[in-house]
Amino acid sequence: MAKRLSDREISQFERDGILFPIPVFDRAEIDDRRARFEAIEANRAGRLPPSLNLKAHLVVPWLWDMVHDARILDAVEDVLGPNILCWAASFFAKGIDDPHHVPWHQDATYWGLSEPRAVTAWVAFTPSVRENGCMRVVPGTHARQIDHRDTRDRFNMLPGREEIAVDVDEADAVDVVLAPGEMSLHHLLLIHGSEPNRAGYRRIGFAIRYIAGDLHQTGGIRGSATLVRGRDFGNFDLEQAPEGEFHPDAVARNNAILKTWMKMVLPKPGTAKAPRQPVGD
């Protein structure tokens, strides 16, 4: 039986590869989380550096709690099943009048998973609307992997500056509009992107990457992940909770994980430099 989503919503996700909006946190809760995030930025030269943002839940205890939150996981379980790993969890923030953007792409391009049974839970910390560069998707485009190419665009937020190597009809695109505290779920292969922030306020989202528990990393490298629900199949090294916010032991473990991740998720030779972040949304 479904835990959170209706049969109609599950069918919609299977058809479109996207489901939104899904209420998760009330306004007071999400405002508190935004304040905590902005306090972290203020203490770290205005941003959470990429090295700590790949799996931010491994260095910040309240983010560890967030990726385990039943209000998120109940919906994820309805589309992935009872055994769930958190593969990554990162903030994606666009500043006021920020030229950075995300071309049309698929998340699966560099993930190196054995199967595309994975979803992103994108939790809005601020309003996410067309004006400030909300995520845009092309529903129903999650059936297969598509080749990508390097755009050589320095404002491209994606790890390999990539974009899909086919044209997208903008008339088919849908804006994923979210209020603070709402989330969307999108499939690993769904074509999506986002425009620059042209608004007078920030766009902040927390993208949690969940994968089915029985998957494994390809390419001969053993990855790590956080078991958030169900059983462990032994295919990943299991990550542990941080002892405190940016605790030295947690940061050291994170740095070791980042080195392994860089070996796993490098763009193909000749496409781009090493990834700056896991993906862009």
Write a short abstract of this structure.
It contains six helices and 13 strands.
Key structural traits:
alpha+beta, seven-stranded mixed β-sheet, globular, 23% helix, 281 residues, Jelly Rolls, single chain, 13 strands, four-stranded antiparallel β-sheet, 6 helices
List the helices and strands and how they pair.
Blueprint: H1 7-16, E1 18-23, H2 27-42, H3 50-53, H4 61-67, H5 70-80, E2 84-94, E3 102-105, E4 118-124, E5 135-137, E6 148-150, E7 162-164, E8 174-175, E9 182-187, E10 192-194, E11 203-212, E12 224-229, E13 237-238, H6 248-264
Parallel strand pairs: 12-13
Antiparallel strand pairs: 1-9, 2-11, 2-12, 3-10, 4-9, 4-11, 5-8, 5-10, 6-7
How would you sum up this structure, described in words?
The protein has 281 residues and is of the alpha+beta class. It has a single domain, classed as q2cbj1_9rhob like domain (Jelly Rolls, Sandwich), CATH 2.60.120. Helices cover 23% and strands 23% of the residues. It has six helices and 13 strands. The protein has helices at 7-16, 27-42, 50-53, 61-67, 70-80, 248-264, and strands at 18-23, 84-94, 102-105, 118-124, 135-137, 148-150, 162-164, 174-175, 182-187, 192-194, 203-212, 224-229, 237-238. A seven-stranded mixed beta sheet has the order 1-9-4-11-2-12-13. The chain is globular, with a radius of gyration of 17 Å. The two termini are 31 Å apart. The model is unreliable at 268-279 (pLDDT under 50).
